[in-house]
What we know:
5-stranded mixed beta sheet; Fructose-1,6-Bisphosphatase, Chain A, domain 1
Amino acid sequence: MQLSCDDVARRDLHKARRPACDQQVTDGTTGLDLDAVRDGLEAAVEAANEAIRTIIAQDTMRVGHKPGEGPVTEADHAADDVLHERLMPLIKDAHWISEESKQADPMIYGEPTWVVDPLDGTREFLRGLPEYGVSVGLFVGDELVLGAVGLPVHYPENGSVISGLVDGDRREARQDGELLAALEPRQEVRKVVVSRHDYEWRELQYQIPYETYPCGSAAVKLVHAAIGQADVYFSTGPRSVWDVAGGVAILEAVGGSLLMINGERLELSPQQISIPPYVAGIEGSCLTLLRRLAPRLS
């Protein structure tokens, strides 16, 4: 989706009219002005997208390795720095959990917490595959209430930012300022997305009786499920909460579900880093896939 200059001007004016985000009380369940926080979140993710594109444009890039985890790049750290600088002032005394940086103070159950993966899909990033993204989720009262995913190179020029707000009965997702349609309930499964590791090494596509395609980042796969590009995202795990928080907020905002492989709802929490295997997407489609795979999953 490309925005015209008029669209950008209207969106910037809309943001300029927002009040400050420091714990303003609203009619929602969080005691925060989530609309204002959301505007700040989207701006922060846009800035992280730009930080990643700046690193891509360089002639060289520093790459390191986290023992037992995988590669980490200069782009990971640049995006992490931008997000920390932009997000922490949005909510007074919020906590911070990131794959690439540490929480300064002890976590306190229920307090507002940003959960961040500044560059999910680093392996794909290094391979030059456009299957990576920025993932940010906000938990308040141990509930996921807001999230965003940035796609730095998903579109030719300025990338894209998708966000989801889930506050009580309110569900709203948008991409670059435009509202996303809710998913239509159904049982049918047409397309399934899995990780590149599951596709290329485990050859999971031969065990799934539906059209199956690979994609790198968990955050991007959740976006695919939220916009209907895939009916189900099937993850064999393990994953971390920072991989999925941003995308799950978007998915739930359009009416999708995150389920464990036993079919029960999977609840995320910043207190629980490790995420077990799951399916995500249209709930009826997810359950259909689980029933078809039941003999193998057992």
